[in-house]
Amino acid sequence: MHNPWWYVPELTAPMVIAIVSVVHVLIAHYAVGGGLFLAVETTHAHRTGNADYLAYLKRHARFFVLLTVVLGAITGVGIWWTIGLASPLATRILIRTFVFAWATEYVCFLVEIVSAFVFYYYWERLPAGIHITTVWIYGLSAWASLVIIGAITAFMLDPGSWPVDRDFWSALLNRQALPQIISRTGGALLLSSLYVYLHAAITIADPKLHGLIESRSTRPALLGALMITAGGILWYLRLPESAQAALLAAPVLNVFMGLLFVATGIVFFLLFLGPYRNPGWIFTPGFAASVLLFGLIGFSTGEFVREAVRKPYIIYNVVLGSQMLPREIAAVRERGYLESGPWTRAFVQARHPAAIDGGKVDVKRLLALPEADRVELGAMIFQYHCNNCHAIERGYSPVGALIQGWTPAMIRALVNEPDSARFTMPPWSGTRDEAELLVAYLARVAPKRPSGMLPDRGR
User: Fold this and answer.
1) Which of 16, 152, 197, 384 is deepest in the core (most CB within 10 A)?
2) What is the pLDDT of residues 6-42, one digit of tens each?
3) 328-445 sits in which CATH class?
4) CA-CA distances (angstroms) from residue 340 to 331, 343, 345?
């Protein structure tokens, strides 16, 4: 409520973040793992004098640079654009808390771009030693970016003592940082090998070169799958109690967690039984594409679970999903939700001046407004207080479907104590009168009880 709300019908603004972020993460992890792959393999090809392998690595580098530098940069900017609109309060806190870390990451990113272009565009013009050094600079700076960003995203799940001491290092070296760095490094190794397999399966006809790429790429892929599993287990063991409870209580998250480990296991055994034990299997485009698909599914579901277990927070114990700081709730309840937000207050002043007294929203006048006005104000309260997690009638977690057939008394109980009904929901942050506005709106959007269901027992 500190900022105007970016309303995205049906999909909801946070889901836009999720879509852009997953695409970026899948590219960014290839940027890290692929950079390490090119560093190791270019070193090997130069030292063994394998001209055919060097020629393939150059072709792969062109594909790599186009995908990671161009599309990766676009989606990276897209993440900042979407989080700035959908979660400005959380974004501001992350920027202010990690100014030094972000600056370091930007330097790493600049080094990545320059070294990637020098590595590719000066391929034949650089001495072998400088060429190798250039690609290692890229690979290590890309991994450094992963470490920094991984620690910052881990902070969002468990900021540790930071809400009290506000110490930079305690924020960066939080309990979730190590599990995320392990699993994300493993994901980078695994995904990069799967990208390499598919690219090589499509572009290479020489069986000897096929065998070399299989033998050189399978071990990092298997190591990556093991690191994802180890990091995931450590991640779960270090989850805050409420996050563990949210994970266990949500059937869809249980399914996704199972899908994550099943997909990772399938990829591991396909690689172990295929290119590791039976070279030649992987180099059909269909097989390579299938293994990559399982890898993408596993990694994407992991990202969804990681985001979902933070509820009711955006940053655990710091920013609620209702775009408020927990310490603000008591004062907002006293002053009134509509009065406390500059954008909500301006809306009431412009559209419902009868509820204004002395330039302020008078909560006692709200219920005296005509029904249509009360419903409109309830819709605005829903947008600011609830739309971070719920669409309205259709879309992502639509509130209409969730309360279908509910009586006004049931809706009223939910609105006044949402965190009691479900601990993954933020507490109600308005007055009792403002709660009635939201009740009126929700009663309007809730579909009737479906026909054919059991009778309502006389309610």
Assistant:
1) 197
2) 899 898 998 899 899 999 999 999 999 999 999 999 9
3) mainly alpha
4) 9, 9, 7
